Amino acid sequence: MTKTGLAYAKINLSLDIISKMPDGYHNLKMVMQGVGLCDEITIDCRPGKGITVTDPGFQYLPCDERNIAVKAAKAFYGHTGITGYKTGIRIKKSIPVGAGLGGGSADGACVLRMMDEMFGTGLDRETLIKLGSLVGSDVPFCIFGGTKLAEGRGEVLTDLTPIPQCRIVICKPWFSCSTPELFKRVNCKNIRMRPHTEGLTAALEKGDLGDVARHMYNVFEDALPRGRRDVEDIKYKMLDCGALGSAMTGSGPSVFGLFDNEENAQKAYEKLKPQYRDCFLTQTVK
Ligand code: C5P
Question: Which among 67, 107, 137 is the best mutation to test ligand 1's pocket, defined by most ligand atoms within 8 Å of the CB?
C-alpha cells in the first residue's frame, strides 16, 4: 500500500524559555502556528523488512537512522507491534533544514499520522503525542498543527483560538543555527526580554491580527551567536513593506512577517527573494 501526504512547517508566534529541566531539556512556553509551506511525503509499505528514506534532489538530509522520518516509522512499529513490512519513505523537500521551521519534525509527524491511517490503528491523541515526543520535541505540535500553546518540552498542547487567516512571508538568512548550541547560550534566569504570552493568546481570542503581531517575540533572538544583523535586516524589510509584525521562528534563523494584505506580502516577497534563496510566500493553515 502507498499513501502520499503533506508535512506542514510551523512558525513560533512566540517562544519563551521558562527553566532548565534536570534532564537537560528546557521547559518552554510557545505559541505555534502551522503554515502552508510543506514537504510531500510518500510512504510505501509492502511485505518484507527494513525502512528506507529517499529524498529526490536534496543532498543534505541524512537518509539513514538519523532521519526523523525513519525514527517516526520505528516508533510506530515499536508501539503497535506491527512487523513484516518493507517501508519506503520518499520526502520531496521544500522546507529548508536548520531553519527553525520544524522541517524534520513536520516529516516525522506526517509519517506517524499517515502510518496510523494506512494501518487503521486509530491511535488516540495522547498516544500520538507520546510517540511524537519520542521522535522530537516539535513533533507533537506538527501532528495536529493549527494554532496551539505548547509547553513542557513541547508535548503539552492546548488549542488556542485559530489566528485569523493571513499571508505570511518566511525568509531564511544564509546561515543555519544549531538548536542545542543556542539553548546552551541562554541563561533562563537572566532573560532580558520575554514575550507576553497571555497578551498574545488574548489577542488571538479577540481575532485582532494587529495585536497578535504586536505580541510576537522569540527569546532566542537575543542569544544568536552571529547573524543578528541579517535577522534584523529581514525584519526591517518586512515591516517596511507593511508587515503587521515580524519575528524569528524557533531556534532560527528564519524570520517571518504577518500580513493582512496580499499586495504588501507580495511586495515583501519580491524584495527579499533576490537576496535570499529560501524565501516563501505562504499562509496560515488551520
Ligand atoms: O527534541 P529535539 O531533538 O528536537 O531537540 C533538539 C535539541 O534541542 C535537544 O537535544 C536539546 O538540546 C534542545 N532542546 C531543549 N529543550 C527543549 C527542546 C529541545 O533543550 N524543550
Answer: 137
Under CATH, domain 167-283 is a member of which superfamily? GHMP kinase, C-terminal domain (3.30.70.890)
Q: Looking at residue 32, what is its pLDDT? A: 98
Catalytic residue check, 138: yes
How far is ligand 1, taken at its centre, from the CA of residue 243, in Å?
Answer: 30
Enclosing H/E stretch for 85: strand 85-92
Higher pLDDT, 175 or 5: 5
Could you say which of 16, 116, 138, 230 is catalytic? 138
Q: Is the pLDDT of residue 61 over 80?
A: no
- Lookup: cell for 6: 503533506
Peptide bond preceding 162: is omega within 30 degrees of 0, i.e. cis?
no
Residues framing ligand 1 (Cβ under 6 A): 25-26, 28, 136-138, 153-154, 179-180, 183
- What is the reported pTM? 0.95
Question: How much is the pLDDT for 65?
Answer: 78
Grid cell, residue 19, equals: 527553566
If you search the block for the grid coordinates 513542557, which residue do you land on? 152
Fold of 2-159: Ribosomal Protein S5; domain 2 (3.30.230)
- C-beta of residue 141 within 8 angstroms of C-beta of residue 150: yes
Angle of CA points 60, 247, 258, to nearest 5°: 100
* pLDDT (0 to 100) of residue 59: 59
Q: 180 C-alpha to center of ligand 1: Å?
A: 6
Residue ranges per structural domain of the chain: 2-159, 167-283
Cell matching residue 267: 511586495
Mean pLDDT of 35-55: 95
